[in-house]
Specification:
With 186 residues, the protein is an alpha/beta fold. The chain folds into two domains: 122 residues, Rossmann fold (3-Layer(aba) Sandwich); 53 residues, no CATH class. The protein is 31% helix and 22% strand. It contains six helices and six strands; from the N terminus they run βαβββααβαβαα. It has a six-stranded mixed beta sheet with strand order 3-4-2-1-5-6, with helices on both faces. The longest helix has 15 residues. The chain is globular and about 50 Å long.
Length: 186
């Protein structure tokens, strides 16, 4: 079976729980005779794709610009260069199954691309990223456990805190976010 694993980062440049899990799973699947490809994102100027072989696993490192914390968040909404690179990989690899380990730093449009190709896929939830841009349900503004979005006011406060702006307590409306927008693209 041809299996494509999609993950936000990968060893040796990044070592964390999701990265090590993905690497271990990819290597184990390859030892069982599957054709495994890992697709992950790097951070560098321009757009490119680097290939390497790791114990029977094809590892593809894609980059489409430098990713600071704000840009990593914004790429979730749209990143045409990354989406096009991913579509090219889908066309080349033609996987039988796609396993999404993490999409942070990738546009959610990847899922649409997968569905358009009709490839079965599954997602492993390693953390809370799908509902919290901080991934751990901890706030940027108070370093406390988040008590939920409260009409997304807590989410806006975290974005402002990440951009180095006042946490806006009490938050007075969307107008407070606009001064922070240029800082998010860092």
């Amino acid at each position: 079976m041809k299996i494509l694993q999609v993950v936000h980062q990968y060893p040796p440049s990044n070592i964390g729980g999701t990265e090590l899990y993905t690497q271990s799973l990819a290597l184990a699947l390859a030892r069982q005779g599957h054709q495994v490809t890992v697709f992950y994102r790097g951070s560098a100027p321009g757009v490119g794709l680097e290939r390497r072989e790791e114990d029977g696993v094809l590892v593809l490192k894609m980059w489409a610009g430098v990713l600071g914390p704000g840009r990593r968040f914004l790429t979730t909404l749209a990143d045409p260069s990354a989406t096009q690179a991913f579509k090219r990989v889908l066309h080349e690899i033609r996987p039988d199954l796609i396993h999404i380990q993490h999409l942070i730093g990738f546009p959610v449009a990847f899922i649409r691309s997968i569905r358009e190709q009709g490839v079965p896929f599954l997602i492993t939830l390693h953390d809370y990223w799908w509902v919290c841009a901080n991934t751990q349900l901890l706030t940027n503004f108070s370093r406390q456990l988040c008590d939920g979005p409260r009409a997304y006011l807590n989410c806006a406060r975290c974005v402002l805190a990440r951009a180095g702006q006042s946490p806006a307590t009490p938050w007075t409306g969307i107008g407070n976010l606009w001064p922070a927008v240029p800082a998010l693209a860092v």
